[in-house]
Design goal:
Layout lengths: L2 H11 L4 H7 L4 H10 L4 H11 L16
Length: 69
């Protein structure tokens, strides 16, 4: 699953349109849509998206035995 697909699911689960999420991020819906198509999000972008949606973005490496790094 791509990060853009994950963001779309986030919007549905948070009852947000992508346009509303873009506005909360201070971006135009058109520029956010272009970024969604490219899938070019930095970790900082994902943190901002999480804040705008009222969720927590967690990132970690998970070893095969379940340990997180």
């Amino acid at each position: 699953m791509t990060i853009s697909e994950q963001i779309k699911i986030l919007c549905v689960r948070c009852n947000l349109s992508e346009a509303e999420l873009a506005r909360r991020l201070g971006k135009s819906p058109q520029s956010f849509n272009a970024k969604m198509k490219r899938g070019s999000f930095t970790i900082a972008d994902l943190d901002e998206i999480a804040d705008a949606a009222g969720v927590v973005f967690e990132r970690s490496f998970v070893m095969m035995n379940g340990d997180r790094i």
